[in-house]
Amino acid sequence: MTMHSLHRFQIHYRLHGRPCHFEQRDTVMSDADAWYYASLHSGTSPALQDEGGGQAMQCARAREAGLSDVRWLRLD
Questions:
Q1: Which of these, 42, 45, 56, 66, is most buried using a 10 Å CB contact count?
Q2: 45: pLDDT strictly greater than 60
Q3: Cβ atoms within 10 A of the Cβ of 26, count?
């Protein structure tokens, strides 16, 4: 991965109803990527990593941990 191929993305989410956001650099972004990054940023990542189960199950666990309304926007 080279620096010129990285893009800036802003990821918004709610954690227990509280709005949060941050910037993430990556070459591409998808909804699944945004949920993954939001889980890391919010500290709910163990809910996504411990038990496996595929993307749908991981998102359900993140929701149970209080993560919601994940969305993203490309900034550049």
A1: 42
A2: yes
A3: 17
